[in-house]
Design brief:
By secondary structure, this protein is of the alpha+beta class. The chain is built from eight helices and 24 strands. Helices cover about 15% and strands about 25% of the residues. Strands 1-22-21-20-18-19 form a six-stranded mixed β-sheet, sandwiched between helices. Strands 8-7-12-4-14-15 form a six-stranded antiparallel β-sheet, with no helix packed on it. Strands 2, 5, 10, 11 and 17 form a five-stranded antiparallel β-sheet that branches.
């Protein structure tokens, strides 16, 4: 299902930001039993002055063998037969109506969803198997309780009335009576959130004792809410540094989570959603089979950003895997630097054509990493070359100098030890907080707002 991006008329007005003292940022150039049924079974939202906007996203991927549901939920040719799957997600904006997106982008066969239920998790916590009694809302699809998602497609549920506060955890429970008749399935392996699997239909159970935990998301790709017309989202194209490797499982402390909390703390940016479209191992240029995971960022730009509802800004923080998986030779590194710069230019050009300003983040250090740091320092030289282009070319509408934020002043090719997760490539929660804290909220100020956020 392809949807046209929501274009913001206010972006036609140029806004020039001066370079500020905010660390790490160069400002820029421009701008059923126990289940309640929905009162509105299907159809678009008709609220005056409101529109649908994503409040949570997860980039769909083909599931690698090591990330498949554990036995007995994966068979020789089927997955999740007669199984209940309960997952939690962390929304950024709140609203009074919610609808869910389910993806079969990489499924080998159609995906029959027998039932799906939305609820609040027990204690409001992420990664728990229990839900709040009485909070369950049955999801429907064109008024029906079940739906089959064709190969390569996604479906959007009908709206359900549910008062959801910003930065809230939600529980999504699915039952697949037939399962999926393929071992090619769609998921987001790097959930950093625990999901639960149990045999049989337990969609409305308040808890799932004895369920099998697994730290992956399957089939869910977005949650939408209705918000005022000024509500909008910032999408982030990224890799494991944005997907949150090194963050706390069930802690929601990736840097996009921290940014969402900062935006909510200030009146002028409380209607800005943060939409994490990142995946571990992702590259800007290459797909699986070329040392990378998931569809490349350049190729998925339309699916994950331009075709989604409510996008108003784009952040690009990606490229380290392209550099790190390219051979440590002069020729290979020169080539990847040139190709990355060309891809950035193309992403910016296409996003601008859809009315989105694009903010570019510099690539953070990897000195000392056993896979990416080569003895000759050729990959570090490429990183520095690409970062120089990001900072000085003028292509990006603003530059987020993440490299400057987290590097060790005494050894700029390495991450500051206080921010290092231990592998010298990924950050710990403190490092991710530093990235989020370095981003000026003025970059996301809506023209209709009068209150000015803190820098």
């Amino acid at each position: 299902m392809t949807r046209r991006p929501w274009l913001l008329a206010l972006l036609s007005a140029a806004v020039v930001w001066m370079i500020t003292a905010t660390p790490g940022v160069v400002h820029a150039v421009t701008t059923a039993a126990g289940v309640s049924s929905p009162s509105q079974a299907h159809g678009p939202d008709r609220s005056v002055g409101a529109h649908w906007i994503d409040t949570w996203t997860a980039m769909p991927q083909l599931t690698e063998p090591g990330n498949m549901p554990p036995a007995p939920f994966t068979g020789t040719s089927t997955v999740l037969v007669n199984a209940t799957l309960r997952q939690t997600i962390h929304v950024t904006l709140g609203g009074r109506q919610v609808r869910l997106e389910f993806s079969n982008a990489f499924g080998g066969t159609d995906l029959p969803i027998t039932k799906a239920v939305l609820a609040f998790p027990a204690g409001g916590q992420a990664g728990v198997s229990a839900i709040v009694p009485g909070s369950a809302r049955a999801l429907t699809f064109g008024g029906r309780s079940s739906v089959t998602v064709p190969v390569g497609a996604q479906v959007v549920s009908d709206p359900v009335p549910l008062d959801v506060a910003p930065l809230t955890n939600l529980s999504v429970t699915m039952y697949l009576a037939q399962g999926q008749a393929s071992t090619d399935i769609t998921s987001h392996p790097g959930s950093r959130t625990t999901s639960y699997l149990v045999a049989g239909d337990h969609t409305t159970d308040t808890d799932l004792p004895g369920a099998t935990p697994v730290d992956h998301w399957y089939f869910i790709s977005a949650a939408e809410i209705t918000g005022p017309l000024r509500a909008a989202g910032v999408a982030i194209l990224g890799d494991s540094l944005t997907d949150g490797r090194g963050s706390t499982t069930n802690g929601n402390d990736r840097w996009p989570d921290d940014l969402a909390a900062r935006l909510q703390a200030h009146p002028a940016t409380r209607k800005v959603a943060v939409l994490n479209q990142a995946a571990g191992g992702n590259c800007v240029l290459h797909d699986p089979g070329q040392g990378c995971l998931g569809p490349n960022a350049f190729g998925r730009l339309d699916r994950d950003v331009l075709a989604q509802p409510g996008r108003r800004w784009l952040i690009v923080f990606e490229g380290v895997n392209d550099i790190g998986t390219a051979d440590a030779t002069v020729a290979a590194q020169q080539q990847v630097a040139q190709d990355l710069i060309t891809a950035y230019e193309q992403i910016i050009t296409q996003a601008h054509a859809s009315g989105l300003p694009v903010y570019g983040a510099t690539i953070t250090p990897f000195g000392g990493n056993s896979l990416y740091d080569d003895p000759q320092g050729l990959r570090q030289q490429t990183r520095e070359q690409v970062n120089h282009w990001i900072r000085t070319s003028g292509w990006f509408d603003a530059v987020l100098d993440f490299d400057r934020v987290v590097r060790d002043p005494a050894n700029p090719g390495q991450i500051l030890p206080a921010y290092d997760s231990g592998d010298h490539l990924h950050l710990n929660p403190q490092g991710y907080r530093a990235l989020a804290a370095s981003i000026p909220l003025q970059l996301f100020t809506n023209g209709a707002d009068t209150a000015r956020p803190a820098p």
